[in-house]
Write the structure tokens for this entry.
Amino acid sequence: MNSVLLTAEIAERILEGQNRVSLDLGLSTTTVVVKEDQAVFENGSKVSLKSLRSILKRPNVVYIVDSKIRPVEFRNAHYYKLVPTSDAPALEIDGVRMHRTAGTTPLKDAREKIRVLGVHDGRVLEIGTGLGYTANAALDAGADQVVTIELSPSVLKIAQINPWSWRVLRDERMHIVAGDAYVLVSSLPLGFFDYVLNDPPLVAFAGHLYGSDFYAILFGILRQGGRMFHYVGEPGSKHRGIDLKSGIIDRLRKVGFTRFRYDEATKGVTCAKPKR
């Protein structure tokens, strides 16, 4: 058994006396025994009831129990943490969730993006690995190969802790490249990919991944007839009159993309590289 992962919900169940709970964020259940002032897990890990009560104070973070109990979070130039949801956990950076959870779940949203993109085989390039949910959805849809680029080592560390990410991290069809996508995509072969999934952070974090120069490179590495999905979201649109979607479509059109469609459910734009 791997490290024990706890949430406020699970801690509360243990404190209430339940002895069958999930210690891997909902993927399975296992036995926990309370002895005196400690909860003892099947892998030998122990945590005090006092520590379980402290978890209740932070319901929006996942805790890991290995040599000690600690939140799954990293602090450097940004603050990263793993947040529990109704199914797979979400990644949060500086208080902003990197997955859509309003009216959906991280897994459902990932599958819907791949459905909208139309992946059924071929090679996929993903900008922004995150926790690997979208890449996993692409593999489930039949992709032969997924190349995914992630800038943040902290994000990849969280993915290694998150059991919902393990399958995709171990799949031989999956190739994770660490670094700045803006730099790395220039070294990829022209016309190599059948699909591109551009799922960048907010413009405030990575504006260069929303620019014409970057779009031109993505256009080049797509095969003729290849398709791209670009996550847009709605940053600022309701309060400051920002029309990010129109700006993205305009820049994509100028570098050669056609057949634009905005999908309301996934808040993303799909487009294609014309066949010659």
Observations:
- The mean pLDDT is 93.
- Residues 37 and 49 are 6 Å apart (CA to CA).
- The two ends are 53 Å apart (CA to CA).
- The chain is about 30% helix and 30% strand.
